[in-house]
What we know:
Layout: H1 12-16, H2 19-31, E1 38-42, E2 47-52, E3 55-60, E4 63-65, H3 68-93, H4 100-107, H5 110-132, E5 150-157, E6 163-172, H6 174-196
Antiparallel strand pairs: 1-2, 1-6, 2-3, 3-4, 5-6
Helix pairs in contact: 2-3, 2-6, 3-4, 4-6, 5-6
Amino acid sequence: MKVHIPSFKHAKWLKRANWLGVVTAILMIVLIFLGGWWRVNVGGGAAAVSVSPFSINTTMLGDQVSIPIVWYITLGVKLLVLAAGIALLVGSLAVDKWWSKRLIRFGATKILWMVVFFLVSITLMTLVMNKFLAGTSPELEGFNMPYVSGSTVSTLELEEDATATIPISLALTKAFAVAVAVAILGVATRIYQRRLSPPIKH
């Protein structure tokens, strides 16, 4: 009895698949679980914040601080990116379908816009804190923090001519580097898809 083994030669969809989009989609889903994109450390570990569009983790003196509404917002972002990743994966595997462009259009640039919004947000936050927080109280006149990444020491004026020095460090993480790579791959996926898929039907 002969056993028929399917040949990849007949799997035209494998040859036609947008493998760049497949890789991008997988990385998008993995990115959800890689942790914070940006870390802030104050007072040598007295307070620490790890931030990404998917999670915001804050510790104060070793205790975890949680805000329920933040958890729900980040959960919504996770689900959005998960849906975008799945859409991108399906669209990249089914490039012969007229709807593949729509799925790729929905999924491919989600991380790009997240990276742009994230960078703008943390830049504005550090700018506001440096420009305005120091003017709210005489004790905070020496407050200073780096922009986006770096380390510094802020000097705070206390009572009876006493001062306190607080080290502050900010850093973008490896997860952010992955996000930038995924954003670039997403743009490349959309460009490459134009060569593969048929025109969108209206």
